[in-house]
Write a structure and sequence with these properties.
Elements: E1 11-12, E2 17-18, H1 30-42, H2 53-61, H3 73-81, H4 83-92
Antiparallel strand pairs: 1-2
C-alpha cells in the first residue's frame, strides 16, 4: 500500500530540532520521512507511542521477529559458544 507524505516534519522550535526521529547526520532526512509515513499509515504519531521496535521492524520488512533475553543463562551459553551466531546464519539462509 503506497503512503504519500510531504516534507513538512514536526519541529520543536524551543529546542530547535526535529520533534521525533532524526538522523545523527543532519544532512540526512530519511528517518523523519520514514517515521512520518509510518505514523500516517497508523493514523498519527501518537499511535506509534509505546509500540515495540520488533513490531515496527516486522511491519517495515515483512520479516518475523523473535526476542531473546541475552542475559538468560541458556542464551549466555549460546553466545559464549558461538552457537547463537551459527543459528542466526542458518536461519538467514
Amino acid at each position: 500500500m503506497p503512503v504519500f507524505v510531504d516534507t513538512l516534519i514536526p519541529y520543536d522550535s524551543n529546542i530547535k530540532q526535529i520533534a521525533y526521529g532524526s538522523c545523527s547526520e543532519p544532512s540526512e532526512f530519511w528517518v523523519p520521512l520514514m517515521e512520518k509515513a509510518y505514523a500516517k499509515l497508523h493514523g498519527s504519531y501518537e499511535a506509534l507511542n509505546g509500540g515495540s521496535l520488533a513490531e515496527g521492524m516486522v511491519d517495515l520488512t515483512g520479516g518475523v521477529s523473535v526476542k531473546y533475553d541475552l542475559l538468560q543463562p541458556e542464551m549466555k551459553q549460546a553466545l559464549d559458544s558461538g552457537q547463537l551466531w551459527k543459528d542466526m546464519r542458518k536461519w538467514n539462509q
